[in-house]
Amino acid sequence: HANHSFDAHLKYLILDMASVSHIDTSALHILQDMYVTYKSRGQQMCFVNPSLLVMQRMIDAGFVNLVGRKYFFAALHDALGWALEDMDQEAVSIHLSAGGEGDDEDDSIDEDLLGDEGDMKQPTNDRKPRVVEMVNSGDDDGMVDKV
Q1: How would you classify the pairing of strands 44-48 and 12-16?
Q2: Measured distance CA(108)–CA(85) in Å, rounded
Q3: DSSP code for 75
Q4: CA-to-CA distance for 135 and 20, rounded, in angstroms?
Q5: pTM, whole model, 2 decimals?
Q6: What's the rounded Cα separation, in Å, for the pair 115 and 128?
């Protein structure tokens, strides 16, 4: 990857397996190596929409047990929703552990986002943006899409 600062903020790598019709031992070894590399950086690989054959091969090879069944999803929407919810839960946990539980100004977050007329205004916090990287195996250009 050319942009290492982006990679440092990457939390999830979501692979869309929809167009993968077969997976052999070499591909499974590569995925295992990728998993170990990303995991060592604190990043999680997720898999979306593998075919029944591909999923069975991953199960038989022990890859699903290595990664964890909860990181395999039927649809991209499910994977993205889970990843965003997980990041939100982590942010709340960090906030609470920093003593934010009794912080009165954060108790009215909904009011802080409303303007004078009740219209939504842009939040002014300095939180880092959510970063999810998705690899779409079905793209004709073979490029990595970053969401």
Answers
A1: parallel
A2: 21
A3: S
A4: 12
A5: 0.62
A6: 23
